[in-house]
Amino acid sequence: xDWGLKNRIxxxxxxxxxxxxxxxxxxxxxxxxxxxxxxxxxxIAPLVKYCxxxxxxxGVVRTSVDPNFPVPIVLRVSGGSSIIGxxxxxxxxxxxxxxxxxxxASALAMSIFVGAKYxxxxxxxxxxxxxxxxxxxxxxxxxxxxxxxxxxxxARYLSLSCRIAAEFGAHMVKTYYCENFEKVVSxxxxxxxxxxxxxxxxxxxxxxxxxxIRAGAAGVDMGRNIWQSQYPIPxxxxxxxxxxxxxxLNQVYDxxxxxxxxxxxxxxxxxxxxxxxxxxxPQNQQSQPRPNQPKPSxxxxxxxxxxxxxxxxxxxxxxxxxxxxQSQKQPQKKPxxxxxxxxxxxxxxxQ
Length: 351
Ligand code: 5RP
Description:
By secondary structure, the chain is an alpha/beta fold. The protein contains 13 helices and 10 strands. The longest helix has 17 residues.
């Protein structure tokens, strides 16, 4: 692999563990002013120091991201359809490589729509984008989009999409978490990053992150479950603690609750009664057995250290009494399966 390509991937997936926290804020490219992302600068500014990379469009980079803060940019370069248009799968490449380089992007991201009307177009566009990006050492993240058909999110479909993306030369693939997610990861020869999807209760979003990492994901590219939370900073820090500090679900939820007390709530600086985060969970997820530690990702060996210091949580200090010490060598239990609640129609499309 070329040095530049390796170096850029290493800025997104950290070399010490091959993992990364990507903050997704590109939703406006087809959803317009998404709830809690109406003013992107306000959403991004308090969170950017807790992510390893930012997934964003060129319009939002230029208007709403501080160029003096060295966060690696994963630049969305595909688009062309909106949530009220005829077919979300009808996307083209809308941003040139030249502009991506001008922006100093660390990677390019585009959606593919396997099984959709414009499948052929999106796959050929992916092949062409990889051809061109490779010339400049720019990695490509393929986003396995499902359009409005969220029910497509099962291991059979997602394995198919992820594998096709990798076969076309994508250097990283973004997809959804699903039951039997190990199958999706093991049949995809490049790192798999998990999208958060529509907003769910915080504990469920943390479970999704935890289960994804245990199943071998290289990280998350999470948006709404961070910035649509009333507790965006505690959420991103908790997600980070799973990905980079190997917190288990109980440890991380304890951490999250503790952090919630330190940060003012959402936009209005007020706390709900009791100072506790939203603990609503679907009926079938009320009691979750305690999981084991996530296993370290088998994904690529990265060569370079992080370009900026990242806040690291200290799991030992948060450990509940009586819990086993953390160890990478513990035998792994089967990951918990995560049931996805049905999203609101307006939030239907996620990629
Ligand atoms: C939007 C995207 C998003 O980046 C992706 O869906 C991740 O965000 P979220 O966690 O909100 O689903 O590709 O088109």
